[in-house]
């Protein structure tokens, strides 16, 4: 466990024996077993939000910047590179394919005064975007499964937010309960999906909620409770499984 009373950190990624976390518009590394924070140089990238993923070979961290674009930053240091294109959406990064070739993100656009979010992918090296969903439901948290085919996401297409996955236009609903479920993270072997569950009636994914539950969904449909924390959208909004699938990381915001 790592704790701080001065820095609000969020969104842990697991990289080898370290975690990459966001805090105050920057990135830091910390040993998974606890230790000191080490700043990660962003290479001239604009201030970032708390959406970021790490390449499978642990050489690059991809980030969402407050200017609405996605950037690639070398973890060993170097100049950041913009990945995303200008096509009328604000980019929120959530996933990377197992081969490191594509990024999955949420594109936010304003359409007739309404905020519309859909799932997109784009080559990590830069290239043409592919729109995966095209609807007016609130979609978020797009993340690749371990087979590189299914993309997991949460959506309000069932009313309140529940977990789904999509492949080739086929959509499967994974949860259907009274709680508001966000940010599905499939384990490396695909046997479990870790996610964040908000109380019934929660709108969106607020940052400070007392009854936030970290859960595991089994392939059988059984749900296992892992923890109940004071937390919110930064608790586990990015992929956070350890490479061996034995652990995953999350953040709580306890009030003393």
TrEMBL record:
Entry-linked SUPFAM superfamilies: Tricorn protease N-terminal domain (SSF69304)
Gene3D superfamilies: TolB, C-terminal domain
Coiled coil: none
Pfam families reported in the protein's UniProt record: PD40 (PF07676)
Record-linked PANTHER family: PROTEIN TOLB, PROTEIN TOLB HOMOLOG
Family: Belongs to the TolB family.
Protein name, UniProt field: PD40 domain-containing protein
Biological source species: Kribbella koreensis
């Amino acid at each position: 466990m790592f704790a701080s009373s001065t820095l609000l950190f969020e969104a842990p990624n697991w990289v080898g024996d370290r975690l990459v976390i966001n805090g105050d518009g920057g990135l830091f590394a910390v040993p998974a077993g606890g230790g000191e924070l080490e700043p990660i140089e962003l290479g001239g990238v604009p201030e970032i939000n708390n959406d970021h993923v790490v390449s499978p070979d642990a050489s690059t961290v991809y980030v969402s910047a407050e200017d609405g674009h996605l950037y690639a930053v070398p973890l060993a240091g170097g100049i950041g590179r913009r990945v995303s294109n200008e096509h009328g959406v604000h980019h929120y990064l959530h996933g990377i394919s197992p081969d490191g070739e594509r990024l999955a993100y949420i594109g936010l656009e304003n359409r007739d005064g309404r905020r519309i979010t859909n799932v997109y992918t784009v080559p990590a090296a830069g290239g043409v975007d592919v729109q995966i969903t095209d609807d007016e439901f609130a979609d978020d948290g797009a993340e690749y499964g371990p087979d590189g085919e299914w993309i997991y996401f949460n959506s309000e297409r069932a009313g309140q937010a529940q977990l789904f996955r999509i492949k080739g236009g086929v959509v499967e609903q994974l949860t259907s309960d009274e709680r508001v479920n966000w940010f599905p993270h499939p384990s490396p072997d695909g046997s479990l999906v870790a996610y964040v569950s908000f109380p019934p009636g929660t709108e969106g994914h607020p940052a400070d909620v007392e009854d936030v539950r970290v859960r595991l969904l089994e392939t059988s449909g059984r749900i296992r409770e892992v923890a109940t924390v004071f937390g919110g959208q930064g608790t586990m909004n990015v992929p956070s499984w350890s490479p061996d699938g034995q652990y995953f990381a999350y953040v709580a915001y306890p009030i003393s």
